[in-house]
Amino acid sequence: MARKRLEGTRLGSWDDVDEALHEIGELDREIGLLESTQNEHIDRVKKNTKAEAAPLHDKKAALELSLKEYCEANRGEFAKVKTKALTFGSVGFRISTKVMVKRVADTLQALKDLGLSACIRAKEELDKEAMKNLSTETLAEVGASLKTENAFGYEINVEKLKEAA
What we know:
The chain is mainly alpha-helical. 53% of the residues lie in helices and 5% in strands. The protein has 5 helices and 2 strands.
């Protein structure tokens, strides 16, 4: 796609630029107020939903506990089968094995000392900040390069904006 060159601009002076910054600041303030109101509405809906759902969650938990207690009392029926299929679902028992760790740091060190690195997960990722210090040749060798750009930015003086309001 061909690059389009913009001819001229709406702003004709530094006063126009300053006024544009003022307008951006005002718009940011209005957007912030709208988002704040939105968040208040969302929080209110979440609070109401949580309050309305609480008795349902309590009833569900009580029913789950009743299921578990009944199945525990009739565990003999699960001697040959792990699961009992019913009309509206199934219940059953499964063997579950969990690894319990008292202190992660101590366990990690012990695994390292015993040479059990297969039991340790390590996430590898690029350190782009460190890569900035590499030479251009080294970066090219590893399939990377540096890109320098002069990026435009602006900053709103919120204090002056408040004074102008």
